[in-house]
Each structure stands twice: as structure tokens, then as C-alpha cells.
Amino acid sequence: MSSATNPETETKTDRLTLVEAVRDGLYTEMSQDDSVIVLGEDVGKNGGVFRATDGLHEEFGENRVVDTPLAEAGIVGSAIGLAMTGMKPIPEMQFMGFMYPAFDQIVSHAARLRSRSHGQYSVPMVVRAPYGGGIRAPEHHSESKEAFFVHEPGLKVVSPSTPYDAKGLLTASIRDPDPVIFLEPKLIYRAFRDDVPTESYEVPLSDAAIRREGSDISVYTWGAMTQPALIAADNLAEEKGVDVEVVDLRTLSPLDTETIVDSFKKTGRAAIVHEAPKTGGLGAEVASTIQEGALLHQEAPIKRITGFDAPMPLHSLEDYYLPQAVRIQEGILETVDF
Amino acid sequence: MSAQDEIEQQTISNTPQANAEPIRILDENGNVLPNAEVPDLSDDELLSMYEDIKLAREFDQRAISLQRQGRIATYAPMTGQEGSQVATSYALDDQDWLFPTYREHAAKYVHGVDLASILKPLRGLREGYAVPDDVNVMPEYIPIATQVPQAMGMAWGFKLQGRTDEAVLCHLGDGATSEGDFHEGLNFAGVFDVPAVFVCNNNQWAISVPRERQTASETIAQKARSYGLEGIRVDGLDPLAVYKVTRDAINKAKDPAGDELRPTFIESIQYRYGAHTTADDPSVYREENEAEEWREMDPIDRLGNYLRGEGILDDELEATIDDRIEAHIDEALGEAENAETEPEKMFEHVYDEMPARLQEQMDELNALREKYGDEEFSEVLE
Question: Residue A134's closest chain B neighbor by CA?
């Protein structure tokens, strides 16, 4: 990691990967706010199985970076209790595929304590979990189940796609008064580096980001799939002269309806790319949002390019399961040529 | 119940059997301990057990090396734990069912899963989970402790159907004892008095978290008492002791004496010599020399010394065994490395009948493969 200062803004930055930016986000907030603590399996002495909490145990001690027993319901349930005392717990779920024991705590309690208590109580915690496929991991280590949590009112669901956003969205999540499910796309944990400001900053949990401007079609995606979507967009620009706009939703709940609809009004065509299975996936919600907001601008059926309605396969077939640039290009062309 | 009975009952409940020193038959040099009884196994059975433990060790080393070469994906090593794994499966009858986790390669092998099938999922081929109809082994459990209530349920099914000759053996780790599923499964096992044996492979570490940070209980075995189950501690590096307690537990599960409950919870005390998986680096969180102390109790040395002392094993036979192991593993690796799968396979067996929507998705993928070629489906980021 190397530090530099941007001559225009005088901001000190580091060249960080996405997982380093998560760590930096945790470090920065923990340095400024004693109420922030991290808890989970192997987050302490081991520094996390992906090193997202590397060095934090030494820096902040075992009472703020806590190795817990192996019990996801216990981790999240106790985090809810901690949050009620004014602390800001950041429980880590080691992999999204292992979140299910904590599901009851998240959906039955964290999500609705505010509404059940008529606003008297809230649960300001951030549940972090690496998610998604593509890293040759064992079974149950590659799922993308964001739709489970998006479906639950009271939760915010966030998935960064760049190191800059990882730190900024994490900071905003920690400071948010409501529970946030913070999903980290592990395929791009170390895929590339960004200039990440050393100081703290927020990327608001309200705005989608236009990653590439275009006029022919809007491609909506998030997390790791922003990468094949951008590759597909570049290929199509070069080979077919198709001008693709790529919209990174970033915050999956609540959705940024305005950016979604405005982009579609410009292009009149849409494709949605996600790793999760097609049926009941967030793509369906985005498609409906577009139709509700801009039906009269629609020039073609809205295309979903997604994982299949089958369990995530073991790693030898995951490259067929995940949306590849070739599948995305084909889906875009089908929509543009309709 | 009379007051006298109540006092007696209380005394029995408080008997700290589950906190006793672990049951052990062989000392660290392979000598039979005073008052210990060697289980009733023939020379051939003892030799076969020894060979399987050695095979497991060799398999482990080869698998780790294959992972380093990028020929298989993340692997969970079992070195130090194979003696207990092999012995528990020797204690099963063929019709008994095994519920393994991702680390019980040797337990699966002994109960009938061939080595190539164990290697296939590590190459990303789900085909390895499918085993012949007469092999009673569940696909390995990866989400922690989820197998415990299921194993209880299968044992319950045997009991409800009067299948008195069938029992279930369920493996779990020390970390699993913190999960809710563990407690729910054990509680049900006691309430419904099912023919199940739960073996906690306490290898002292749940990735980086040591046993003493996992639970404030003095022993893991004592947790069984909360559910009315017999809890037993055994030296997990002593294959003969593990065999004996597991065999006794299986016998009790099928044919309990008097008002004895059928289920048993065994804490098999072991040590994970190596990493949690090949993706883990234990030097970050534990001292290297900790493993050395346990290696002095190594199951291969102890059983080997015992067999030599009894005149069952000599250098010549040891060399034959080693050659046979080498050839067996080579053959399995060859088969696993030559095994192939097809993208269609991920659409199969999702349901009894493939829904039309899924069929459409498979057809779309196949049309794309036809049009662009499989080379377009390599790394997602390329």
C-alpha cells in the first residue's frame, strides 16, 4: 500500500483493494468512536479469514475486536443487545452461506425493533458478510442471497463494488441509525486497487452510481457483477458500436428509484445482471420499478441475466453459473436489437 | 419416588463421569495400560485398522500437496485425527448410517466411500457426493452442527419403524457445540431416546478459536448431562479406546440394558496437527510447539508399536502395507483427476422433474456455449 496526496483536493489517499478498504473503514471508525466494536468468528487474533479485520485486535484489544464462540445466532443476537446499550456492534458472518442460523435474529428482531417499539428503540448495527461466487470456494461458500434481506422491511442492504465505495458505504452504514446488512463481493476483494482517502468519508446509502454513461441501454447491477458488466459494455462499444450505461445500485435496500428510472428514460432499454438465482431475485424488483416509473419509455422487454434457478454448483461449474461477459453481451444485444 | 430414591438419583446425576479422565487403552508407547482391556478384534482387523489409519495420513499429505499445486481446491486436513475417525467407523455395522462433516474423509472411506469420490468434490465435481446405494454415508456437512438434529431424526425413524438393527453415528467438532442445532439435536435425542451416537471430534481449535474460548464448560462431554445423555471422554489418539467406546455405544443404541437411554455423546479428545483448511495459516494464532506435544501421542506410532509388541506387525509387513497404500492412492487420484463433469449437471436433480423454467435456462446456456464455445466461460473477471 502506498500513500499519495491528490494535488487538486489535497486529500491523502492510499492505494487499497476492496478488502483493505473495508479494514480501513473499520479502523477509521473505531479510532473515532469508542462505541464501535467488531465481533465474530476468527475476527480477532486471526484477523478474519479474508483478513478484513487484520491488525484490529492488536490495535483495539480483545474487548473491541472479539473472537466469539462459533454461533451465528449468538453473534447477531448479542449484537442486537449490545446495540441497545448505545454501542455500535459490527458482527461479521464468516460467509453469507453461514448466515442462516442468524436469520431469525435479523428478520424477526433487528429489522423490526424500531417499528415494534414505535420508534423508541433501534438497532444500529452493521452485519458484514462476504458473498458471491467465483473464487473456487467449497460448497455453501459462494451464495448470493441478498434478496432474502432486501425482502425484509427495516433492513438496509448494501453491496460495494469499488474500494472507494467500500470504505465510504461502510462508514455510512456504521453511522446509520438502522441495521445494515453489508455484503462484500469477495470475488473482487483483491481484484484491483483504488485511491481511498485516509480520512473518513461517507458514501450515502441512498444513491446508485452511474459507472459508465451510455445512451442505448441501461445495465443495472451491483457488487462483483459490475466488473463483467463493464467488460461487456466496453466490448460492445468496440465491436458493435452499442453505447451501454452501467448503473451500480450500491444500496440494494432502499433502492434509488430516481436514478434507476432516470437512466431508463434516457435509454428505453434495460438489462439486469445479478449472480443470485433469477426467480425472486432483485432483478424482478428493478424491472417492476422501471415499469412503474417509465413504462411509456420502454422500447424492449427488460432482460434479466442472472444465476440459474439451481443451487450454486461446486467450483468446476461456477463460471457457467455466474453471468459472464459473453452472456451479458448476448443479453444486451438481444434487447438492443429487439 | 421416595426420598431415599431421590438422593440416589441425585448422586447418580452428579457422578462426574463426563468429566472423568479420558478413557485410554494404550499408553504413549503403545503398551496396554494396567486394568485396560483390549477390544475383541482379530489380528486381521487390527492390522486392517492400522493400514486404514496410515492410508488416511498418506491421503492427507497427498491432498495437501495437490492443493498446493492447484489441482484441487480448499482441503480440510485430518492429520492427528485419522485414528479416531477410522476407529469410529470400524465400530459401525454396515447398515448403520454415518453423518460426516467436511473433515471426516477417513471415517467416510472406512464406511464405504471410495477415495476417488472423496476427491471429486475437491475438484469441483458434485458427483463425488453420490455413493452406491449400499453405502450409508450422507454427503458431508459444511454448515456447522446442522447434521446433529438430522442424524437424530434418522435414528428416530429407525426406532419408529422398529428397525432395531440400525443406528446412526454423527460427527461434529468442538466449535459445533456452540451452535443451537447441536443443543436442539441432543435434546431431541434424549427426549425421543433414539439409537444415535454423537462423536465430538474435539481437536482443540475451531479455526483460530481455542477450546477454552469456545465454552466455559470444564469438559465438552459434560454437556450431554444437560440432555440426560451419557457423556464419555476418550483419548482420540488411541484408536483402540475410541473403537471400544464407540462400539459399546452402538451396541447400547440398538439394545439398551434396562432403563438405559439409547443415545451416547462421545468427546473424542484430539488435536488438529495442521491448518483448519489449506486456506488457513495457524501460525497466526497458535504456537508451533503445541502440536509437538500431541504428536508424542500419535495414533499411528501407538497402534504400530502395540501391533509389533504383539508380534502382529513386522518391517516386512509394514513395507507391504505402505506399498499397497501408495498404489491405492495413486489409482484414486488418477480416477479423480480424469473425472469430468458437464454444465448440464448443475441443472439436474434440483427437483424430481425439471421445471419448464429451469429447462429454458439450461437451453439458453447450451445455445450460448454452442455459439461462442466453452472457452468464453472461463474466469468471470477476464
Answer: B380
Name the DSSP letter for residue B42: -
A12 pairs with which residues across the strands? A5
The reported pLDDT for the residue numbered B382 is: 74
Which chain A positions have a beta carbon within 8 Å of B180's beta carbon?
71, 73, 101
Tell if the CB–CB gap between A327 and B368 is shorter than 8 Å. Answer: yes
Q: Does B176 touch chain A (CB under 8 A)?
A: yes
Quote ipTM for the complex: 0.94
Architecture per CATH, A209-336 = 3-Layer(aba) Sandwich (3.40)
CATH number of B14-338: 3.40.50.970
Query: For the segment B155-194, what is each residue's pLDDT rounded down to a tens digit?
Result: 999 999 999 999 999 999 999 999 999 999 999 999 999 9
Contact A313 B214 (CB under 8 A): no
- Closest chain A residue to B283 measured between Cα atoms? A46
pLDDT for the residue numbered B143: 98
CA angle A2, A204, A176 (to 5 degrees): 105
The string over A62-92, giving b where at least 16 C-beta atoms fall within 10 Å of a residue's C-beta and e elsewhere, is eebbbbbbbbbbbbbbbbbebbeeebbbbbb
* Ranges of chain B whose pLDDT falls below 50: 1-4, 6-16
List, in sequence order, every residue forming a beta bridge with B164; answer none if it has no partner: none
The pTM (predicted TM-score) of the whole model is: 0.95
**CATH number for the domain formed by residue range(s) A3-197:** 3.40.50.970
Tens of pLDDT along A199-243? Answer: 999 999 999 999 999 999 999 999 999 999 999 999 999 999 999
- Domains of chain B, by residue range, sit at 14-338, 343-377
Q: Cβ(B107)–Cβ(B88) under 8 Å?
A: yes
- Considering only the beta carbons, identify the residue of A67, A134, A139 that sits closest to B208: A67
Give the model's pLDDT for residue A3: 66
Task: Specify whether the CB–CB gap between A61 and A45 falls below 8 A.
Answer: no
Return phi, psi of residue B219, to 5°.
Answer: -130, 165
How confident is the model at residue A10, as a pLDDT? 75
Cβ-based neighbours of B142, under 8 Å, separated by 6 or more: A138, A139, A140, A141, B101, B102
CB under 8 Å, gap of 24 or more: what pairs does A284-288 form? A285/A150, A285/A255, A286/A220, A286/A249, A286/A255, A286/A260
**CB-CB neighbors (< 8 A) of B206 in chain A:** 41, 70
Q: Which residues of B touch A44 (CB under 8 A)?
A: 208
Q: Do domains A3-197 and A209-336 have the same CATH topology?
A: yes
Beta bridge partners of B269: B202, B235
C-alpha cell at A287: 424491472
**Cis before A254? omega within 30:** yes
> Kindly report the CA angle at A163 between A256 and A261, in degrees rounded to 5?
15
Give contacts of A136 with chain B, Cβ < 8 Å. 73-74, 124
Catalytic residue positions of A, numbered:
141
Give which of A234, A320, A329 to mutate to test B binding, by max B Cβ within 10 Å: A320
Query: Which residues of B are marked as active site?
Result: 272, 276, 285
User: CA of A55: which chain B residue's CA is closest?
Assistant: B284
Nearest-by-CA chain A residue for B73: A136
Q: Which residues in chain B are contacts of A311 at CB distance < 8 A?
A: 346, 350
Burial of B317: CB neighbours in 10 Å, binned 0-12, 13-18, 19+: middle
Domain ranges for chain A, please list them: 3-197, 209-336
CA–CA–CA angle A183, A185, A191 (5° rounding): 150
Q: Check B102 against A138: CB less than 8 A apart.
A: yes
**Which residues, 6+ apart, have CB-to-CB distance to A129 below 8 Å?**
A92, A93, A94, A95, A96, A99, A181, A182, A183, A184
Instruction: Indicate which of B380, B381, B382 best probes the interface with A, i.e. most A CBs within 10 Å of its own CB.
Output: B380
Using the Cβ of B350 and the Cβ atoms of chain A, whether some distance falls under 8 Å is answered with yes
